[in-house]
Amino acid sequence: MADRAGVKRVLNRTLEALLPLLAVPVAFLIGAVMLAALGANPLEAYGAMLQGAFGDKSGITQTLVKATPLLLVGLGVCIAFRGGVINIGGEGQIIVGALAATAFSIGFKDMSGWILLPMSMIMGALAGAVWGGIPGVLKAKLGVNEILSTVMMNAIAVQFSNYLLRGPMIDPKEIEQGTRIAQSALLPKAVWLTRLVPQTLLHSGAILAVILAVLVYIFLWRTTIGYRIRAVGLNIDAAKYAGIKVPFYQALALILGGGFAGLAGAVEVMGVQHRMMENLASGYGFSGIVAALFGALHPLGSIPASVLFGGLLVGADKMQRAVQVPSSLIDALLGLVVLFVVGSQIWSRWRARRRETHG
Amino acid sequence: MKSTLSRLLALVMLVVILAAGCAPAAETPAPQAATVFKVAIVMPSSITDMAFSQSMFEGLKKVQAEMGGESAMEIAYSENLFKVPDAAAAIRDYADKGYNLVIAHGSQYGTSLEQVAPDFPNTAFAWGTSMDTFQASGINNVFAYQAEAQQGGYVLGTIAALMSKTGIIGETGPVDAGDAKLYIEGFQKGAEAAKPGTTVSVTYTGSFSDVSLMATAAETHIAAGADMLTGSSQSVVGAIGVAKDKGVYWFGTQWDQTSLAPEAVVASQVYDWTGILKDMIASVQKGVMGGKAYTLTFKNGGLVIAYNPAITVPAEVKTAADAAIAGINDGTIVP
Amino acid sequence: MGELFTLPVLLGIIYSGIRLATPYLFAAVGETFAQRSGVLNLGVDGIMLMGAYSGFYVGMKTGNIWLGLLAAAVVGILMGLLMSVISITFQAEQGISGIGLQLFGLGLSSLLFKTTLGGVESINGFKPVRIPLLADIPYVGEVLFNHNLLVYAAFLLVPLSAWFLNKTTFGLKIRAVGQNPQAADTLGVNVTRVRYFCVCLGGMLAGIAGASLSIALINLFQENMTNGMGFIAVALVYFGGWRPYGVLAGALLFSFVNAFQLWIQVLGINIPSDFAIMMPYVLTILALAFATKRAQQPAALTKPFERGEN
């Protein structure tokens, strides 16, 4: 009896999580009107989108490649938001994570791959943790609001990266060729993440991300620290009365959030690009937030959410190419999807509450 | 009851999405005459940026018109792809769709090209701005192209220095790298050579799209006494607006920027990619898929100084400019 | 280095700083209203872009920039309405709805620009209006009192908003709704209506902020011309402690330091441009870190309101 109730609960929760997705077709309908107005065939366009994201090996792997940083950033967002802090600093944290992994692996390129690879990732995560930690400490010690500090840190990271990529970290080959493209040297092959499917960009970072998702779930729900972070996020006053040091755990939430974003940056350079370049982060910091929220801020929910959102992004670009509509239409459509999905969360909540009151 | 309804709705939604997916997806275009040359181009900014991307896109359209219109050349494009992985996906996708020539119009796309080109030996790729055709790695289907931006910079700097009444010139750059850096340094050299003692100040905004800060940079130069301004990137539209308002002259690069401010733009260095494009297309049609590196210079007609007819450039200044061009062409001047 | 701290430079910084601060002021003061009532709107940047486009397009087509300004305000209200419906009525997660709104505004403005205008062109926007007696004040007169009307409006907005928030009944309602909506509700305040008003007001001001760029300061429209200004504006609300004068301080600090770092570059002072460009961001964080007063954010910020819920 108790078992069936438990299964029913999980089913209900999953359905509630899926309900907002009903909003997607509605957004697509509006998009169809815009597509038609531009002279494109909506069915052909959406067909290309679905086909492009999930229809063939190239599409699926591209979707998963995109989903990887979304999931990693999303995990950090889960921790931060659950701790009651808003981390919009993903963009900057990804950049410094990528920079650190690049600098470390190139600097120590003669080290054995067994050590160099994990160490580079750890360096990336550490760099991101520091970049998130600065706003974290500023909030804990000086009460500086984290939205202000993380937005500023993003801009600082971009300029810092520009400086490094054009100066100390530029590829020596660029200087000898005189082209001076702002990118780093290729990372040593020892740290290139294994390609899972030949001829595609899908790399082992995807598997790492999923493993980490499970670990984050365990961390947040099965450890004391995780419990305290969630407690602070749910009710600061109650947490204080319970003797939890609120500022410390808020800072910790930001540090961990930054660490995951930094790891996302490291994984991107090690798995996809094999070198650091400009505009590496562009958008993942924000998309990761959206993906995490689509996943109900649950680490395990973030997995399908990242895949779906990644598919949406990949499919949208494929659609742009197939029917040759301006990329701005894609942006508008994605914006609508986000608005509609997040706006229909009310149905889930209403349903959940009905369920609770009616037993 | 209600839960069944929601389950039904979810099912309907699933069906709708799947139906869209199974719909006649991307109808294969009716087999066209074998002579249609299909070109795809991937760009990091907008085709209306009055700069880098626009110059190439307009060049492509011009070649299309000369070839006979859409029945002779089909153009597909993807713009605003400043994220390299997205551009890589686009390049691969277009190659996969059977485009004859895929142009990767961004220096950051190099690594992506190096990975994609070998997978499509029957597709020609072009990469700019760069001089590397990857032949050293055994890749034979990549063309490379760039512009000697510093040449036009030098000439425009010459004009600016000679026309300046205050002897102070301002340069508003985006980021201290690549094409922008070449142009800005060339401009400075030309100005200082034409009139020794000219003060040339340079600022960077740190972004290719910060229009507002570009405008502020222009204001700052003007407040410091500059009566001649120049700069690079799509965000210079902000600086041009300020130049117009303050009655200061502007020199443009990459595209003819006269239309934006006919009372302020004296001259622009225009990138004319048509010669390169025509040669690439001809090569591909003959079976040569890559391996050539092109550059835009005054000598080969790729770089042109477009004067704004509404602003009078003194005859002796024009002579000096022409002399500079001649000097660059015969090698006596190295910007 | 010494040439940096001279009068012409200082005057130049003030002049540029005032102009640069204008769009931030409109957008941030607008957002202050929204946040004071308890709603976080991260979509300000998207609204600014729609306002910039609308103002430019209508101004260009009708030849009347005042109509353009009106169009920008109306479009801003409409975008605010969209945000209100999604975030207030449908109680969506406000951080996300804001991001969605920004993306939508960015895409739609670029799309409309592409299909209706085709290319970047300039417009005869609001011209500087010299205030007679005040502009004659030696030295500072010209840099303070020779700006276009929207600049003056942005600065006048600050005391006006402070008065409205702190000295009027409706302002009291706004603050109450943001601090304790349950209590306000029991006292007969229509929480939803107040929030709708504030978010739409914020939208209107964000739209005007965009127009200040396209038909007053830069006088043209280019895709994504705001380049993230809206996000900075939102951050400035936090910097300013949710008070219009605090927001003014933040906008001025940020803009003046930006103008200052450009002078550093112009004068050829030997700091790598990247670090100069970082200065406004670093200094803003430092300024808040060392500020002595620490404002409390509206208690109900980002929390959807539902009657009878505790």
List descriptors:
heterotrimer; A: 359 residues; 16 helices; globular; C: two-stranded antiparallel sheet
Radius of gyration of chain B: 23 Å
**Major pleated sheet of chain B:** 6 strands, parallel
What is the arithmetic mean of pLDDT of chain B?
88
* Basic shape of chain B: elongated
| Text of the CATH class of the largest domain in chain B | Alpha Beta
DSSP helical segment count of chain B? 10
Strand order of the largest sheet of chain B: 2-1-3-4-5-11
- The total beta strand count of chain B reads 12
The appropriate CATH architecture of the largest domain in chain B is 3-Layer(aba) Sandwich
How much of the sequence of chain A is in beta strands?
A: under 5%
Note the topology.
The complex is a heterotrimer of chains A (359), B (335) and C (310).
Chain A: H1 2-18, H2 23-37, H3 42-55, H4 57-82, H5 90-107, H6 113-142, H7 146-166, H8 172-177, H9 205-222, H10 224-234, H11 236-241, H12 246-273, H13 284-294, H14 299-323, H15 327-343, H16 345-358
Chain B: H1 2-22, E1 37-42, H2 52-67, E2 73-78, H3 84-96, E3 101-105, H4 110-116, E4 124-128, E5 142-147, H5 149-163, E6 168-173, H6 178-194, E7 199-204, H7 211-223, E8 228-231, H8 236-246, E9 249-254, E10 265-271, H9 274-285, E11 293-296, E12 303-307, H10 315-330
Helix pairs in contact in B: 5-6, 5-10, 7-8
Chain C: H1 7-36, H2 44-62, H3 65-89, H4 94-116, E1 128-130, H5 132-135, H6 140-145, E2 146-148, H7 149-167, H8 169-179, H9 181-186, H10 191-217, H11 229-239, H12 244-266, H13 273-290
Antiparallel strand pairs in C: 1-2
Describe this entry's structure for a reader:
The complex is a heterotrimer of chains A (about 350), B (about 325) and C (about 300). Chain A is mainly α and about 350 residues long. Chain A is about 75% helix and about 0% strand. The model of chain A has no long low-confidence stretch (mean pLDDT about 90). With about 325 residues, chain B is an alpha/beta fold. Helix content of chain B is about 40%, strand content about 20%. A 6-stranded parallel sheet of chain B has the order 2-1-3-4-5-11, with helices on both faces. A 6-stranded mixed sheet of chain B has the order 7-6-8-9-10-12, sandwiched between helices. In chain B, helix 4 links the parallel strand 3 (about 100-105) and strand 4 (about 125-130). In chain B, helix 5 (about 150-165) runs parallel beside helix 6 (about 180-195), helix 5 (about 150-165) packs antiparallel against helix 10 (about 315-330) and helix 7 (about 210-225) runs parallel beside helix 8. Chain B is elongated, with a radius of gyration of 23 Å. The N and C termini of chain B lie far apart (about 80 Å). The model of chain B is unreliable at about 1-15 and about 20-35 (pLDDT under 50). Chain C is mostly helical and about 300 residues long. Chain C has a single domain (about 1-290), classed as ABC transporter involved in vitamin B12 uptake, BtuC, CATH 1.10.3470. Chain C is about 70% helix and about 0% strand. In chain C, strands 1-2 form a two-stranded antiparallel sheet. In chain C, helix 2 (about 45-60) runs antiparallel to helix 3 and helix 11 packs across helix 12 (about 245-265). The longest helix of chain C has 30 residues, at about 5-35. The interface of B and C includes residues 210 and 238 of B.
